[in-house]
Design a protein that fits this description.
- Helix 6 (about 130-140) packs parallel to helix 7 (about 160-170) and helix 12 (about 325-335) runs parallel beside helix 13.
- The longest helix is centred in the N-terminal third of the chain and has 27 residues, at about 1-30.
- This protein has three domains: about 1-60; about 65-95 and about 115-310, Endonuclease Chain A (Endonuclease, Chain A), CATH 3.30.870; about 325-490, Endonuclease, Chain A (2-Layer Sandwich).
- The strands form two sheets. It has a 16-stranded mixed beta sheet that branches. Strands 8-14 form a two-stranded parallel sheet.
- It is globular, with a radius of gyration of 24 Å.
- It contains 19 helices and 18 strands.
- By secondary structure, the chain is an alpha/beta fold.
């Protein structure tokens, strides 16, 4: 009898705990969360309550710790104060801008603090080895400092000359600093050798967003710093989609499949390089508590290009350190502002509802909307989640172009009409909008967009267009997996 009573009591306790979890989830999960994300979390918790709640406790918060967010707010105030007084640089002629572009610039400055600056030049580089060679060459000219920040850093055959340039710069008395994402880089083959090489050549380096609970450094482990940039002396900068690693990522599975990454970087000259440098200085301060005042280079008239081909540019940082999804808001505003054409390139295309409405609405307004993605995927869940949107996009009138394997089209850019573009590290996916620290460059200038159009034409020539007829012949087993992946992609 006592055994039966004990069994009943255990089941009552289990039922009560289970019910408490579900009720608590209904109260806690939807707070400050998008409905799609809240529904996905609630479904996980209701179907697998104990595992679901464990994962929610581990990765349920899409924000960095309060201290880190407070530091970002402090940095924004410092940037805003500096932006009010840049007398050495001629002001951009905002009277020439259409009203919508002025609003975009205001939005970016309100959220990310960085002003738009004129008098810039920018060159797109789509050759993987060529961009590393270009960055290496610029480091060889450094006289004061070199700032390097990449999601993934690896010392290998492809990057050895880059490391050699850093070593020689240190030998010349140049201060070389490097930031690399903790989780992404330590998962890379040869990471110990990479850190040993950085120490050997005298580079000052630090992990970004380290997950080291024993050292008191902890946040949601999949919040990552995904930025890629190089700044030399505050006069030349590089940014875009490419990591500092071999084109195969030195991964056994990639080498087995013959995968090669296709990226796009831009080399920037002019006052806006100060913005890229500020992003590095901000991240260095966030990770090391060190303010590098001597390596802050304000915008200078000496760097100003006053030719008709000069570009107006604005650096847009984003990520979980900010209160708003800066990059998503930028993309949405541009999509709704476009008058003729929208061309999107993203290796991981997993939009939220707002992004899907903006894209399909662009088609319904009569715009030419094109999307470039990879035909092959390197990340199964993301690849299948991406595929789940193809039917809706094709039915709305979006033209989808598939870049052929064994290449992974890893470039990340957006162009609208004939004179406005964004390039950077941000994918068009929920992760980049909410979970990753990213940096984007808004560019206004027909010359830059012409370069981007040439790159897009290359994608089109190498790839093939996916049609609705072809997509509707996809087997049910594949599309069912796509739908499941789409559901889990909302677990922010």
């Amino acid at each position: 009898m006592e055994t039966q009573q004990g069994t009943v009591l255990i089941w009552v306790i289990v039922f009560a705990v289970d019910l408490a979890i579900r009720i608590a989830a209904l109260i806690v999960v939807p707070r400050h969360r998008k409905p799609s994300s809240a529904m996905a979390w609630l479904l996980a918790i209701f179907l697998i309550p104990y595992i679901g709640i464990l994962f929610f406790l581990l990765i349920g918060s899409s924000k960095l710790p309060k201290k880190r967010r407070a530091r970002q707010a402090e940095i924004n105030r410092m940037i805003a104060a500096g932006a009010r007084d840049v007398p050495s640089v001629p002001a951009v002629d905002r009277a020439r801008w259409p009203e919508w572009f002025d609003r975009v610039v205001n939005l970016n400055q309100t959220l990310g603090a960085m002003p738009a600056l004129g008098g810039n030049r920018a060159e797109l580089v789509s050759d993987y080895a060529g961009s590393i060679a270009g960055m290496t060459s610029d480091i060889d000219t450094a006289t004061t400092f070199v700032h390097v920040e990449f999601y993934i850093v690896s010392f290998d055959v492809t990057t050895k000359d880059f490391f050699r340039a850093m070593e020689q710069a240190v030998a010349r008395g140049v201060m070389v600093r490097l930031l690399l994402d903790h989780i992404a880089s330590i998962r890379t083959a040869g990471h110990k050798e990479t850190l040993e090489e950085l120490d050997r050549i005298g580079v000052q380096w630090s992990f970004m967003l380290p997950v080291q609970p024993m050292k008191g450094r902890w946040q949601r482990p999949d919040l990552r710093n995904h930025r890629k940039l190089v700044v030399v002396d505050g006069r030349v900068g590089w940014m875009g989609s490419q990591n500092l690693i071999d084109r195969s990522y030195n991964s056994a599975k990639n080498l087995k499949r013959g995968l090669q990454w296709q990226d796009l970087m831009t080399r920037v000259l002019g006052p806006v390089v100060s913005g890229l440098n500020t992003v590095f200085l901000s991240d260095w301060y966030s990770e090391t508590d060190e303010i590098l005042s001597s390596e802050h280079v304000p915008p200078s008239k000496a760097l100003f290009d006053d030719s008709q081909a000069a570009l107006e540019c604005q650096v847009v940082p984003s990520g979980p350190g900010f209160e708003a999804e800066n990059n998503l808001r930028l993309f949405l505003t541009l999509l709704y502002s476009a008058q003729h054409r929208v061309i999107i390139t993203s290796p991981y295309f997993v939009p939220d509802e707002a992004m899907m409405y903006a894209i399909t609405s662009s088609c319904q307004r009569g715009l030419d909307v094109q999307l470039f993605v990879s035909e092959e995927g390197d990340q199964g869940p993301v690849f299948h989640a991406q595929r789940s949107y193809y039917s809706e996009l094709l039915r709305a009138g979006v033209r989808i172009f598939m870049y052929p394997g064994p290449f992974i089209l890893h470039a990340k850019h957006l162009s609208i009409d004939d004179d406005t573009a964004v390039i950077g590290s941000s994918n068009m996916d929920i992760r980049s909008f909410a979970l990753d620290l990213e940096v984007s460059l808004l560019v206004r200038g027909a010359g830059f967009v012409e370069q981007m159009r040439a790159v897009e034409a290359g994608y089109r020539e190498r790839g093939r267009e996916l049609t609705l007829d072809e997509w509707e012949r996809e087997p049910l087993r594949a599309t069912a997996l796509d739908g499941l992946a789409r559901l889990t992609s909302a677990l922010q």
